[in-house]
Amino acid sequence: MAKDPRETRIEDLPGPKSPGELEEMKMPYEEYCRKAFDPGNEWAKPEALKGIRWLSCTMYIFTPHSAANLAELGADVIKIEIPRMGDAMRHTSPFNEAYLYPLHDTRPMTGTGFGFLNANSNERFLSMDYHIPEMVDVFYRLVKMSDGLTELYRPGTLDRWKMSYRYLQEMNPRFIYVWGGGFGYGPKVFGGSYDILGQAHAGLASITGMHEYMGGHPLKHSNWCIDWASGTMITHGILAAIHWRRKTGLGTMIEFSQVQTPTRISGYTFPLYGRFGIVRQRWGNWDTQLCVHGIILCGKSDFPDAQNPQDKFDARYVMVSAFNDPDFKELCDITGLKDFYGRYKAHKDRVDARPQVEIYTALEKWAADKTRTQVVKTLTDAGILAAPVMNDREVYECKHYRERGTLRWLDDPLYGDVLVASGHSVGMMTKTPRRTNWIWRPVGADNVGIYRDLLGIPLSKIEEWYNKAWI
Amino acid sequence: MVDKAKLTPEEYLATILVPEKGRETGHVCWDCKHLKPVLKGSKFPPADLIGWCTMIHWPFYWCITDFNVVKKCYAMEKGIYTPKKF
Amino acid sequence: MADVIWCKKVVGGKPCNTVNYLDPYCFWNWEGKTNCAECGTVYYIYMIQGHMYRGPDEKPGEKPDMSPLYADKPLEGYTYYLPGVKGRTRPYECLPRHIYLGRADMVKFSIRGKPVRGWRPQPPSGGLAGQFPYKWDIKKLSPEVWAEYQEKRKKGEVKEW
Predict the structure, then answer these.
(1) Which of A386-390, A392-396, C27-31, C93-97 has the lowest mean pLDDT?
(2) Which of A167, A235, B32, B84 is the most exposed place for a label (fewest CB within 10 A)?
(3) Tell me, what DSSP letter sits at residue A43?
């Protein structure tokens, strides 16, 4: 202790006393991350959006996903559905095969399909026919005690029902209102949208797939990637609106046209047109800016005896990246394509279309008598970035996703054992991690919890509404 | 109707894909096999295109405008796109 | 558009009358020989942008390069050849599973052997106005599945991953 108690000396303080000691006391970064993120123990930590209450008057994937993002981060999201019917997405399932039961006690033979997964996790489910005059007041009461709403009706529908932002902001000036749909106001105001329409209409499908020269057609992504991406972009808007409201006390209206999302994803496509009048074309599994940087086909499958054609025939693709000069030289050396390095020493030479056709053709020829594993091993041993193109079974078995908690088994409180993806760990957070508490609940599963406990409506009234199918 | 047995594949393609504009636009492109013409009756793209060049910016397509007449081109290769308008 | 080959070959005194569908992903720009799914007649075709440029010309005695994906006989009601009939139609290798059911597939256990509510009908377990609890009381609601689960656990069929 120093003589003068007001003096603070570093040796009296707890903690490291020198930069060297500080370095020694630090745990390795890997260990720090494991401890800080701690996948599997999310529930011991607080939720970032606790206290936000959101109404979700949505269907399908795009708009529901915007609210599911909030719910996974801790908001209390109330999904309002058509009584006894629910979101149309509940009735979809891959090839009509995968359902979880029940949908509702009155419909014991109907389930909710896996099409509904991930877009509605952690939400509470209310059923209400809110457009009939008897229920409008109940809807307004929910608006007054909520922070915002997402809806997806044709533009102006909720305005006609006096439930649009123009009306709701008068009852709750802090209300954040999201409309999400196909086109929004403008020349195509009445146009509805699906994910595939979004991909087609904004030019994304036209630059996906093999070039016309190679016999390719425009492709859509197998999954509804524009729905998922648009929902996530709405969530960004909502979080920004919440921050703005903290500063000003005022709500916002967010109007989100789904067909705009692919324009964001399409990179240089539009600027290129604006500069030269060039229409970008598809370039398949190769890359227009980098070469070598693409996916090649090997001759032999890793699982030639597998019963599943996905394993038997498709376990043959390898992603290769060797675009900078030393890597490309190495690639040419080990694949025996030395003359290519002689001809295309500079990246600007080999990134042209014609050299790319030559190089990738030669690489596939080199790989024609090898399995995927052999190709990956040969390349990675030489210090070149290469990875197998994995299917979902292989992803499930991959340690990376298991250790980080991306894929995990959820013991759903109502439906049992379900394998869930990404609900916990798209963007890990040390203090307030995302989590999946439940995948979904039956239609109207929280009716009493919301009508009675939140709004104070007596059970007799709830029963009366239920018998009239208003809820 | 032309007898398709006598047409080359390029000429046949030109009979099923009829261009909106033709030789009167003055482009040398109508003799070139790399032209991909705007088809008759198409609403997209805007009417001031005669088509796209599939070669000089390959693999991308360059928009050939009506008003910017291409008189000569290094990528020009003999081909037939509008036999009807010859 | 894509084209079809309507086979009119007279077989056994009457025309074959089979429509062979030339699916665009394979036949859009294609030159080669294909077969009729019903009578096996080999046709030479040359398609450009989905249009028939040459053919179909019969090539008796030659082997087809590729079969159509699907064929049917519209004049004889609902007679058809699904993809993957050996020697007639091309197999469709993109099937996600080797058994394609196309109807709700009931399961009681997930692939690691734990119970999941994938079968119907489920015993009613909701309350007023469709209110559901936050717990699946499997022991009470489906005791037979619970018993089966205990059996599986004893046999070591329940895995962690």
Answers:
(1) C93-97
(2) B84
(3) G
Domain A53-263+421-467 has CATH 3.40.50.10540: yes
Which CATH architecture describes the domain A293-397?
A: 2-Layer Sandwich (3.30)
Question: What is the DSSP secondary-structure string of A74-132?
Answer: T-EEEEEE-TTT--GGGG--GGGT-EES-S-TT-TT--EEGGGTTSSTT-EEEE--TTS
| pLDDT of C100 over the 80 cut | no
CATH 3.30.1540.10 range(s) for chain A read 293-397
- Contact at CB, C48 and B5, closer than 8 angstroms: no
| Residue A96 predicted with pLDDT over 90 | no
- Evaluate whether ipTM surpasses 0.85: no
The answer to whether the CB atoms of C129 and A444 lie below 8 A apart is yes
Distance CA C41, CA C58 (A): 7
A→B contacts (Cβ < 8 Å), by residue, are: 211, 213, 272-273, 276-281, 283, 288, 353-354
Q: Where in chain A is the domain with CATH 3.40.50.10540?
A: 53-263+421-467
Q: Chain A residues with CB inside 8 Å of B62's CB?
A: 276-279
- Rounded to a whole number, what is the distance in Å from the CA of B54 to chain A's nearest CA? 10
What is the pLDDT, as a whole number, of residue A103? 93
Q: Are the CB atoms for C4 and C37 separated by under 8 Å?
A: no
> Where is average pLDDT lowest: A356-360, A423-427, C107-111?
A423-427
* Chain C contact set for B5 (CB, 8 A): 54
Residue C85 has pLDDT above 90, yes or no: no
Residue B6 confidence (pLDDT): 80
Task: Quick: pLDDT tens for C143-152.
Answer: 999 999 999 9
Q: Among candidates B57, B59, B61, which has minimal Cα distance to B75? A: B57
CB contact under 8 A, A418 and C116: yes
Q: ω before B45 within 30° of 0 (cis)? A: yes
pTM higher than 0.80? yes
